Amino acid sequence: MCSASHPGIATRDRVLGVAITAIGRDGVKETTVRKIAHAADVSAALVLHHFGSKQGLLDACDERVLAVTEAAVAALTESGGNAGVQGFLAIDGATEALAYIGRSMQDGGPAGRTWFARMMEMTLDGLRTLESDGAARHSEDPTMRALLLIAMDLGVILLRPLVTDLFGRDIADPALTERWVREEMDLLSNGVLRTSAAAALAEPATRPPGKDST
Amino acid sequence: MCSASHPGIATRDRVLGVAITAIGRDGVKETTVRKIAHAADVSAALVLHHFGSKQGLLDACDERVLAVTEAAVAALTESGGNAGVQGFLAIDGATEALAYIGRSMQDGGPAGRTWFARMMEMTLDGLRTLESDGAARHSEDPTMRALLLIAMDLGVILLRPLVTDLFGRDIADPALTERWVREEMDLLSNGVLRTSAAAALAEPATRPPGKDST
DNA sequence: CTTGCCGCTGAACAGATGTTCAGCGTAGAG
DNA sequence: CTCTACGCTGAACATCTGTTCAGCGGCAAG
Question: Touching check for B4 and chain A: CB below 8 Å?
Fold first, then answer.
């Protein structure tokens, strides 16, 4: 790594990594400058010395997360691998970036907004392509369909700690990720409900029987 | 309202409501005791007087949210209305409760854990019933299927601010909720992909083509 | 060796936050 | 009326947070 040429740059990068991990895990407000400094084995003053202020640090985090995810997307699309959210989990550093983005989306940060807009755009594009290829059914409401598809994957990421509790291991565990992909493919291909029965159920009360969730 | 018999109880309830709304919107850490007090037009000391500590207030919030949602579930299942997450949005007070639960799920609070477990359980039960009625297809991995269904709905709730930006109005807006239910029903009934094409796509690279999300 | 630069630190400060406490006002009981 | 109980408050305190600043220590240039 040529980035280790100057020790100052190296520790700056380390602080950034620690900050992204901590914020992804605990949120922005909970992650204090002193906690970051302690986890990175430096003084709190140094963190501010490098980034000017906590806001500056957050901006730097946003920038780096966007760069990391951008690179991950490029690598995935080039290798022809699974370009869904699941594909990210295997990429180095992208796991933390994903958690950070999730937090950022809820705190209304700029990185979260940017990424949500981009995901919507890419999903809509993908659906259009699939439809023109005859691989996807037409939807009367493509925006809502794209939102639901994104929400399903992002929901799993946002609920990550609870999902880990549920299965006993992290969703990034390869075996678990495969189960995820398999079931989602099944859902997207065949749905959950038998169409005849679904039609009968849908008529009387606009009721989505897939989940009496609450 | 018989709850106004004692003025102390009334303001206590008001503080609780304000706290739940604020926490659902901004998160636990961001919502300070003084902010809650100001929003409820009381002193910060009174908040602590009623609940002992901020933790006590949070516990009271959990308790109330669980009670509200419990009542909402009962009302929905009794009236035979839409018992999905969408049905909640129309119920008084349940909207704030839902946002609070979303926050609690990410902060690892007990209310969030309890509700996630309950939603999983109810969804699995619902799927079993539908399957034995012949209304739902069998799944090799019911737990994962239930998770995906829950994640899809909870994802929409957790991404609420971004969704509001996307559509220009809140997801609780009846017109938007109807679009949501309609598209989700379509997805659950028919899937997104044409099965023949999906099979062809699935073979080479385990790729979920519904979203090139990233 | 001296000088100056630079990564880095500890101490300090102002503001915010959770929490405590003595006491105010009022309303109902005696 | 007196007195007590209770909802409620303002002021104070210790702690934590972001931020500033003077200065240490090593290292490369002169």
Answer: no
